[in-house]
Amino acid sequence: SYEKLQNIRQSRLNPALATYYSKPLALHQGYKQWLFDINGKRYLDLLGGICTVSVGHCHPKITAAVNSQMDTLGHVSNIYYHPKLHEYAERLTDKMPGELKVVYLVNSGSEANDLAILLARLYTNNFEVLSLTNCYHGMSPQTMGLTSLGAYKYCIPQPPGHHHVMNPDVYRGIWGGANCRDSTVQTTRTCNCSSNFCEASDKYFDQVAIQFDHNIPKGHVAGFFAESIQGLGGIIQFPKGYLKRVYELVKKNGGVFISDEVQAGFGRTGDNFWGFQGHDFTPDIVTMAKGIGNGYPLAAVVTTPDIAKALTKASHFNTFGGNPVACSVGISVLDIIEEEKLQENSKLVGTHLLSELAKLRSEFPIIGDVRGKGLMIGIEMVNPGTKEPLQSKKFLKFFDTCMNLGVLLGKGGVYGNIIRIQPPMCITKEDADFTVAVIKHALQSD
Ligand code: PMP
Predict the structure, then answer these.
(1) CATH number given to 63-339
(2) Per its UniProt record, what InterPro entries does this chain match (predicted)?
(3) In which band, very low, low, confident or very high, does the pLDDT at 438 lie, cut at 50, 70 and 90?
(4) Which of 104, 244, 369, 425 has the maximal Cβ count within 10 Å?
């Protein structure tokens, strides 16, 4: 019963756990883009276990792969050769451009980014790492230094060698307005720029240059971390040209560029398999988690053979990383994305949903912005006529209404006022229309 679950939650589980709703929601079952609560009520899942269930809940192909692997060989560690590890290493790195051909398999996004920090420092022999405000890269002691959102910044000293640069948020940032977007991206605001290097891009880029001029001793940078689209930060897309220029500047200063593809990777953005590919450059290190395993604990770091060599300065080992079951899941996820054309579906359904939501924005001034790419969509909720974040009480009521109507949404942003839509990539156009209808109804009943 709910009461029993609630008692255990309150007395035995991490008290920092949050919920989006005024009443707890106890889920029991999942199938594709659908979730069912313990009373059998069905919900359209638009958060996908926090952008993780990429190919759908309880996909039969993954279940079969896990069962078969568990029946054959569950774990041996990567001291030994095993075919699934080797097959997966090849399959995953085949998806990467250029020299990015060496993979380390780990279990979570935080671990992947921890390892990327280590690789960047060992390879460059430098220590300083940079990341953007509003970013999320993990909650381990090291990645907490990268993470800007929700970390324990104010109560414990941060790990040394971490620097934050202002994120190029063209809606809420101090140089908002001069928006420059890829023409394939539907946006509700007009683009004022005529080139790749719009005014906003220039100004935000200058912030990175200032860090190098003033805060990081010359020749001391190890790496720059960025999500290609900020996820938890509120689906923040960067002005065109920005990431490429930062990449060039970081390289010029002796560092490496790390693209965190934990949310934007695996076809979610529609046009490309990796988010960075929409920005016209190839990073030195790519980290990935979440969608890579459809809910199974699997994550990875991919880099060049040259950078990878840096880890041989000491031993590097991860007990579970690349275990046969995880690799079987990883292979199945890649198969399913291809077989079911989920990247193409992300583009098709995401573009449709984005344009329908943009129409809602013109009807409801409570919607300040609609943005995103593929099935990575953000809706910024404001007090009408302003950019002030919508009061949390109103937002809670909105979430409750959507939940009652059978739609589960995500939340993000520094102020927690951004709706995040990052569903399993198998959702349909009809699901998108249902979502818009539910959001509209929830806004009207406010
Ligand atoms: N990077 C990004 C972009 C993320 O969104 C997250 C998780 N929200 C992480 C890293 C950390 O992943 P994990 O929770 O698996 O450690």
Answers:
(1) 3.40.640.10
(2) Aminotrans_3, Aminotrans_3_PPA_site, PyrdxlP-dep_Trfase, PyrdxlP-dep_Trfase_major, PyrdxlP-dep_Trfase_small
(3) very high
(4) 425
